[in-house]
């Protein structure tokens, strides 16, 4: 049996452990051999995004040390996966780093493209809005971009359509950015907040009870806006919905 290494980003581990636990439980339910390397830490994306990629060698080498033995590396965070796919390099283990870049997967793409899940045993009887993150669309190609004249597809939607009782709401702007953008929300706070409010409003006016997506960073940004507006709408990582019974 192929060995799967579970890569849990630091912000998920610290703030949203439920998303990491749900990912692990879901992969186990599907009969996969899953291991969580306990020595893992930050993948280095925050430093790289801030212009200090030359200082990420320690993070990169530790990632290689933790995950080189696995056939697949799976994570519930598209932005961190995209960072590893495009930026994992090491001075001493470049061949291993190059191999890892080809076998790291965001959870949704792993379930759709590798496991090819067809009949999820999940139930979530609620109205749900799907947020399709920018890096997921334009970096990992989890769904089609609306600016392209091309056939539409959505891997998250493909999985959510298998969940019993779930009612997916229709948004006016299905792939609009939430404004988080990692360090963008710090250096351009006002713009980030306005974009987030617009994204949240689209879900609210269309009756969402929950907002889901494949990346907790975007959901975290929108959750902050929802709480400040005293909204009862909640955010849940897609793994928590796919794992619901």
TrEMBL record:
<feature type="domain" description="Cysteine-rich">
    <location>
        <begin position="4"/>
        <end position="85"/>
    </location>
</feature>
<dbReference type="Pfam" id="PF02754">
    <property type="entry name" value="CCG"/>
</dbReference>
<feature type="domain" description="Cysteine-rich">
    <location>
        <begin position="128"/>
        <end position="222"/>
    </location>
</feature>
<protein>
    <submittedName>
        <fullName>L-lactate dehydrogenase complex protein LldE</fullName>
    </submittedName>
</protein>
<dbReference type="GO" id="GO:0005829">
    <property type="term" value="C:cytosol"/>
</dbReference>
<dbReference type="GO" id="GO:0016491">
    <property type="term" value="F:oxidoreductase activity"/>
</dbReference>
<dbReference type="InterPro" id="IPR004017">
    <property type="entry name" value="Cys_rich_dom"/>
</dbReference>
């Amino acid at each position: 049996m192929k060995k799967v290494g579970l890569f849990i980003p630091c912000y998920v581990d610290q703030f949203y452990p439920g998303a990491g636990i749900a990912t692990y439980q879901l992969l186990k339910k599907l009969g996969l051999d899953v291991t969580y390397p306990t020595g893992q830490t930050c993948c280095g994306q925050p430093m790289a995004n801030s212009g200090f990629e030359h200082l990420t060698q320690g993070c990169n080498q530790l990632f290689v040390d933790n995950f080189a033995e696995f056939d697949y590396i799976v994570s519930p965070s598209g932005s961190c996966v995209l960072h590893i796919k495009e930026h994992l390099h090491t001075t001493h283990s470049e061949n291993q780093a190059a191999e890892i870049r080809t076998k790291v997967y965001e959870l949704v793409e792993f379930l759709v493209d590798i496991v090819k899940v067809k009949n999820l045993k999940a139930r979530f009887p609620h109205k749900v809005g799907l947020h399709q993150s920018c890096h997921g669309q334009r970096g990992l190609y989890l769904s089609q971009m609306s600016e392209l004249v091309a056939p539409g597809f959505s891997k998250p939607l493909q999985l959510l359509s298998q969940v019993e009782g779930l009612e997916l709401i229709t948004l006016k702007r299905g792939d609009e950015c939430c404004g988080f953008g990692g360090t963008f929300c710090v250096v351009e706070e006002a713009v980030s907040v306005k974009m987030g409010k617009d994204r949240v409003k689209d879900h609210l006016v269309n009756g969402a009870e929950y907002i889901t997506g494949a990346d907790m960073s975007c959901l975290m940004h929108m959750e902050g806006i929802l709480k400040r507006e005293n909204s009862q709408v909640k955010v849940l990582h897609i793994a928590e919905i796919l794992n619901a019974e």
